[in-house]
Design brief:
heterodimer, A: about 775 residues, alpha+beta, 18 helices, about 25% strand, disordered N terminus, disordered C terminus, B: five-stranded antiparallel β-sheet, four-stranded antiparallel β-sheet, about 35% helix
Chain lengths: ~775, ~290
């Protein structure tokens, strides 16, 4: 007889590096993806896109395309009005038309859709749609767009009615500033006057693309006259259902949204993208419609914000930061998407993980005629950390202080209030910094070289607040034979959520993770989940699944208590059975037979998680409870600079993170390291290049992302486990943490190597070589260029 | 992509008959690695593709002839990479191949296609140009040998007629004591087309440079021999000053193109850096 365990005692599923449950299906090619879904009578839609950055549609002639053999229909914005009276969508603002109605706002803005049974016919015919534009002046730079008199991208601001805090923006006009956020703490000007030194820097970031290997794909399929099934590679099935139902004026139960595995997401497939377009086309055509974007079209759908960040710090002679003023300009592109949320919910962390008495943050998102920007792995945080951690290093060097030591002096500690007033509950800021310094062997000297190749090292640390308030609901069911399924709206897009949720359910129910089936999102089946985004799923959905599994467990214990004539409190679950203190046990299947008289019935447990939240004060940005948990990510980089070419090789990348409790340590490591490599690409090579608003490098041949040849020889993850009191088994989300500090760590390491400060991403060889030349060559510690 | 005719003739005569001297939408395809990308990007709309796939038996293989290596146009880059004969007689080529594209592309791409495409961003044209290679071009009018110097006219522009097919490539076997190197500079990702490619071959006779052959590719509209630097080096003893002078002469001679892989000015500087590096590498011991 095996030894007994107590209820709640861990049986070894949490903390176990369970191999991903879907590995075999993926490797053998049998895993389900939306791309593979086909239904009878299906049409393929090819989008006709704007060729101008800003203009009014004067004439739209679809006759040539319609005349093509094999073309079923050509849908325009005017057609969409027949099924969607107000066809504007978006998660924060309702500003994006399903198809352009009067104006186009970027090169690539969808203007029409050609439907054909053969996707190649649709593509050919799309080129035959004739559009005449009256071109309007366009604006691409966030600072220029914010100036009075700039061309207006939108005549009026249209906030979504769902967000109470955006209501005051309704009807605002005459500006491209779509949304602003302000934080006020202490008296910044007075503190600047008092400070021994004041440092000011401006940092910029470029527009980048998510580029999941599976581009966006969606299939809308009518089921009778009044129901719609949408198969879509989305990260947010619940939101797609709400938004499509809203646009159609239907109740949500008439729209069914299903997903499968995603071939990557990174924020590109969030909220609603082309689902409303597919739905409209499907209803207008009366046939299923599938829209499959090409790799190139991904650059025209959603991207990461370019930013300009002006940061000013007042510092005392002994290295205390006493004041910091942050002015952040987010380039939102042509449509708001989730930018207003980034502006606020990332904006409020712009002063960094530091204990600063006087803080002012002003964060603005500005419409421009660029492809729209939104959430990309980190939700704005990597742009902020790039600036404030480069700035922090600049200050440390000017003061003649070691960069780690300078951070030690100023870093917030666990439990201290952040600039927003929300305490850093169970947050390992200092622990992450120390773990990073240790892993980097910071106290040991580094051989920097003296010839063509110079070496240097740098660190950086960033803080993110998990987005709030958001809800996750889950159902756990136990079937008649005792097997278990988790019904969750979390989308597994490669981050391993199926495995982690199975581990949480298994831990609670005394099973092996491999025995638990995780059912993929289907809004007819799986309960509401806000979205798979912002590193929120493990924390929120993990809690919901844990609750739901506990409910099932308690039902099993109650049945067993009757069957075994024992006190339920003394019973435990283990190895798929309930055990009494005396050693008697009944398997889950035996319990179901006991309860239902045969192998039958279903036990259902439900869980809901909505963490507490307090809205920030609109004037000061202060809040007692602005986030359910803080995320801390540190990065250390060792680089080698080729002073002849300006090329940077990263030799070592260390990613230290507060993970709360690693449910699956192997997945946590790959999440952190994978995120760091993604951000490394955005640090050294990636940039969408626009000419007159047109992305001229919209392909993987021209827009380079890191290949295996670019992976540093050493990439390591350092897991710092400070369990969160509200996390499932103490866990925190980590999907983005590895991105935060990479850019600044690399820039700081370059400075350490060659004494040149770059203030604009990406750090291309030409940019760095020019800066080196201006600074008077390698080794000069005076060079300040960017 | 619209409909087109895909022909897979079983003989060269048949293939040539399917080509059209006037129609640019009729093209020969070897491995298809470049052409299919152009079709997907909608910059090339074929009406007919004449695949040489079934001619692989006749136009494939690496042989040692009197003047050097004779390589069938349908030989894949991977076969060149793995050939012991190439490794022995043209090691610079062997060393360049593993960093050309990736193994999937090299398994599919053919030498004939690589050379006939006229894409200036390729790795092998500057190497073969410096080596003095030539291609056999065959048309219904017969065959002619075209030196690489005369093959490339400009950006994606070759001297091949529309009904001419590259059938064989002749790579001269350089004297055994020839030293050589190819240096590939990738701008952003290490896995990319080169921003600058430099190939150099020379002999040291009595400690002096002789028969210097220097070619630069990728940064220019077409791969070019750098005669000024060659002249400057011939007869000189290697020294840092001589290498630098040659590198500067090369940088002064090339006409780089500004694009996403750097401005013309930057590429000119990269030519200087990498010509010098190629010379140094070859001096340190790079065999031909």
């Amino acid at each position: 007889m095996a030894t007994l365990t107590q209820v709640g005692q861990q049986v070894g599923q949490v903390g176990r590096s369970v191999p991903r449950l879907e590995s075999r299906a993926k490797v053998s090619g049998s895993a389900e993806y939306v791309y593979h879904v086909a239904v009878p009578g299906m049409l393929h839609g090819k989008i006709v896109r704007s060729s101008v950055a800003h203009g009014r549609i004067r004439r739209l002639d679809t006759s040539g395309a319609r005349a093509q053999p094999g073309v079923y229909a050509v849908i325009t914005g005017q057609d969409v009005l027949r099924v969607m009276p107000d066809p504007h969508y978006g998660p924060a603002f309702h500003d994006q038309p399903v198809l352009a109605l009067d104006k186009v706002r970027f090169v690539g803005d969808p203007v029409a859709v050609v439907l054909a049974e053969d996707p190649h016919v649709a593509e050919e015919a799309a080129a035959l749609v004739e559009v005449e534009y009256e071109e309007l002046p366009a604006v691409f730079d966030e600072l220029e767009a914010a100036r009075p008199g700039a061309p207006l991208v939108h005549e009026v601001i249209r906030p979504a009615t769902t967000f109470a805090d955006l209501k005051h923006l309704a009807g605002r006009s005459g500006t491209n500033v779509a949304m602003e956020y302000h934080l006020r703490r202490g008296d910044v000007e007075e503190a600047f006057a008092r400070a021994d030194y004041v440092f000011e820097d401006v940092f910029r970031t470029q527009q980048t693309a998510h580029l999941p290997l599976e581009p966006f794909v969606c299939l809308a399929h009518p089921e009778g006259p009044d129901r719609l099934v949408i198969y879509t590679a989305t990260q947010s099935p619940s939101f797609v259902r709400s938004e499509v139902a809203r646009l159609l004026g239907w109740p949500e139960n008439r729209v069914r949204v299903r997903t499968a595995f995603l071939g990557g997401g990174f924020g590109a497939k969030l909220y609603i993208k082309l689902e409303a377009l597919a739905a409209a086309c499907c209803l207008l055509a009366g046939r299923p419609v599938k829209i499959t974007l090409s790799m190139e079209e991904q650059f025209l759908t959603i991207t990461r914000h370019p930013t300009t960040f002006r940061i000013r710090s007042g510092v005392t002679r002994d290295g205390r930061i006493v004041a910091r003023a942050c002015e952040v300009w987010w380039n939102g592109g042509a449509y708001a998407d989730i930018s207003p949320r980034v502006t606020q919910k990332s904006g409020f962390t712009a002063s960094g993980p530091y204990d600063i008495e006087n803080v002012r943050i002003d964060s603005y998102v500005v419409y421009t005629n660029r492809p729209p920007t939104g959430a990309l792995r980190g939700f704005g945080i990597p742009q902020l950390v790039w600036a404030y951690e480069s700035h922090t290093d600049i200050i440390a060097h000017r003061l003649g202080m070691d960069p780690v030591e300078f951070r030690r002096i100023n870093l917030l500690s666990n439990g201290q209030p952040h600039a927003t007033g929300t305490p850093l509950t169970d947050t390992a800021t200092r622990e992450v910094l120390e773990a990073l310094a240790k892993a980097m062997e910071w106290d040991k000297p580094l051989e920097r070289g003296s010839g063509r190749y110079r070496r240097g090292r740098g660190i950086a640390i960033g803080l993110k607040a998990c987005v709030a308030p958001t809800t996750s609901c889950a159902t756990v069911v136990l079937y008649g034979d005792g097997s278990v399924a988790v019904l969750a709206g979390t989308v597994d897009m490669g981050q391993g959520s199926d495995t982690a949720l199975a581990q949480i359910a298994a831990e609670t129910l005394g099973l092996q993770a491999e025995q638990v089936r995780v059912v993929h999102p289907d809004t007819d089946v799986t309960p509401y989940d806000m979205a798979t985004l912002g590193s929120r799923s493990l924390f929120h959905m993990g809690n919901a699944v844990k609750q739901a599994a506990e409910q099932v467990r308690d039902q099993l214990l109650a049945i067993a208590a009757r069957a075994l004539e024992a006190d339920a409190e003394q019973l435990v679950v283990r190895d798929g059975a309930v055990w009494a203190p005396g050693g008697q046990s009944l398997s889950f299947k035996e319990l179901m037979v006991h309860r239902f008289g045969m192998q039958a019935g279903t036990l259902v447990g439900t869980g809901t998680y909505l963490p507490p939240y307090a809205k920030p004060d609109p004037e000061t940005g202060q809040s007692e409870e602005i986030t359910p948990f803080w995320m801390v990510g540190g990065c250390g980089a060792e680089v080698e600079v080729d002073t002849y070419t300006g090329r940077v090789r990263v030799l070592r990348l260390v990613n230290a993170a507060d993970v709360g409790r690693a449910i699956n340590p192997a997945i946590v490591r790959t999440q952190l390291n994978g995120a760091s490599l993604m951000q490394l690409g955005m640090t050294l090579m990636e940039e969408m290049v626009l000419e007159q608003g047109q992305v001229v490098n919209a392909s993987l041949a021209a827009y380079k992302i890191p290949g295996f040849g670019d992976v540093p020889p050493v990439v390591e993850a350092v897991l710092v486990e400070m369990p969160h009191r509200h996390g499932p088994f103490g866990a925190k989300g980590v999907g983005e943490t590895g991105t935060f500090a990479v850019s600044a760590a690399v820039a700081n390491a370059i400075y350490d190597a060659v004494g040149v400060r770059i203030r604009e991403l990406p750090i291309t060889p030409e940019r760095l070589l020019a800066a080196l030349r201006r600074s008077g060559g390698a080794g000069s510690q005076e060079g300040e260029e960017g | 992509m619209s409909d087109f005719e895909l022909c897979e003739p079983g003989s060269l005569e048949e293939a040539l008959a399917l080509l059209d001297p006037q129609d640019p939408s009729v093209r020969v395809v070897g491995g298809g690695t470049a052409l299919v990308l152009m079709m997907k990007q909608r910059v090339f709309h074929p009406t007919r593709l004449v695949s040489l796939r079934r001619l692989a038996g006749q136009l494939r293989g690496i042989m040692r002839g009197e003047r050097g290596l004779q390589v069938g146009a349908m030989t894949t880059l991977r076969e060149l990479e793995q050939s012991a004969l190439v490794a022995r007689t043209a090691p610079v080529l062997s060393r360049a191949l593993p960093r050309l594209a990736n193994v999937r592309v090299r398994n599919q791409a053919t030498l004939g296609g690589h050379l006939a495409h006229g894409d200036p961003h390729m790795d092998l044209p500057p190497i073969l140009l410096a080596m003095g290679a030539r291609v056999q071009a065959t048309s219904p009018r017969g065959s002619r040998w075209v030196p690489l110097e005369e093959l490339y006219l400009g950006y994606y522009e070759t001297s091949l007629a529309r009904d001419e097919v590259v059938t064989w490539v002749e790579i001269p076997e350089l004297p055994a004591d020839t030293r050589g190197a190819y240096v590939k500079f990738c701008y952003l990702s290490a896995e990319d087309w080169p921003a600058v490619g430099v190939a150099v071959f020379f002999r040291l006779e009595g400690g002096q440079f002789s028969q210097v052959r220097l070619a630069v590719g990728a940064c220019t509209e077409r791969p070019v021999r750098i005669s000024r630097a060659e002249t400057l080096l011939n007869g000189e003893r290697p020294s840092p000053a001589v290498l630098e002078a040659a590198a500067q002469a090369a940088a002064g001679e090339v006409q780089p193109v500004s694009d996403l892989l750097g401005s013309a000015e930057y590429k000119r500087e990269m030519v200087r850096v990498h010509v010098r590096e190629a010379l140094e590498q070859a001096l340190v011991g790079g065999g031909r």
